[in-house]
From TrEMBL:
Domain of life: Eukaryota
Leader sequence segment: 1-19
Pfam families (UniProt xref): CBM39
UniProt keyword Signal, yes or no: yes
Protein name: CBM39 domain-containing protein
Transmembrane region(s): none
An example Gene Ontology molecular-function term: carbohydrate binding
Keywords: Signal
Stretches assigned to the CBM39 domain: 24-123
Species: Aquatica leii
Length: 218
């Protein structure tokens, strides 16, 4: 009977959250990544009634390492809601899986899980090129040679074909591994979010004998 009550409460909680979320959408935040402190800034545009901005995320490094990040603020900075983190090192190629919670006019709203892919870092000197890499072409890196000069390798050469297959396999495997890592990270965030919800419900159950769903959602 106790477990049925818990299940009912969770059901009402989910309906309450998603019912309110349909009436208001949290603005998309802006991410600023830098090699200097603060290394990460998350900026949410101000809207009338916002009184709390909460960020729950997990940084996934290119090598598979994950770092949990929790930040919140109840005060605006320069007319916007800003969060700062100076304790992480973020590089191009990393990704941040996150969800947001905003309290607006006394009502809480949650943004579904999103993924931010780090494509640039302020402070890094970067050079870009529009030339597409071709594994069948050798590109000279020696400064004494003409940078536009290329040598097309013989595609019939078995060694060349074998090397090309390895390159393609390596790229494919790395992409698949990164996708799997992001999926696992998202699942971990879901689990931790449910654990927090259950803990809050159990705490409120201990505080009252008569349980009303609307009380648990205050």
């Amino acid at each position: 009977m106790f477990y049925i009550s818990i299940a009912s409460i969770l059901f009402y909680s989910v309906c309450y959250v998603y019912g309110n979320a349909s009436n208001y959408q949290i603005p998309t935040p802006e991410f600023i990544v830098s090699i200097h402190a603060p290394n990460l800034q998350i900026i949410l545009p101000d809207e009338e009634g916002i009184e709390l901005f909460y960020f729950y995320g997990r940084l996934t490094k290119a090598n598979g390492e994950t770092i949990k990040m929790l930040m919140d603020t109840r005060e605006k900075t320069n007319g916007a809601w800003m969060l700062f983190n100076s304790n992480v090192t973020i590089d191009v190629g990393d990704s941040i899986t996150y969800w947001l919670y905003v309290k607006k006019s006394g009502v809480g709203y949650r943004m579904p899980y999103e993924v931010y892919h780090v494509k640039s870092v302020i402070g890094h000197w970067m050079t870009t090129t529009t030339t597409e890499y071709n594994p069948m072409v050798t590109y000279f890196t020696d400064s004494t040679r003409n940078p536009d000069q290329v040598i097309v390798q013989d595609p019939v050469n078995l060694d060349t074909v074998h090397e090309t297959e390895n390159v393609e396999c390596k790229v494919t495997c790395e992409n698949e591994l990164k996708n799997m890592t992001n999926a696992v990270t998202t699942m971990q965030l879901h689990i931790e979010s449910l654990e927090e919800m259950i803990i809050n419900i159990l705490q409120k159950l201990n505080q009252t004998k008569t349980v009303h769903p609307e009380l648990l959602l205050q």
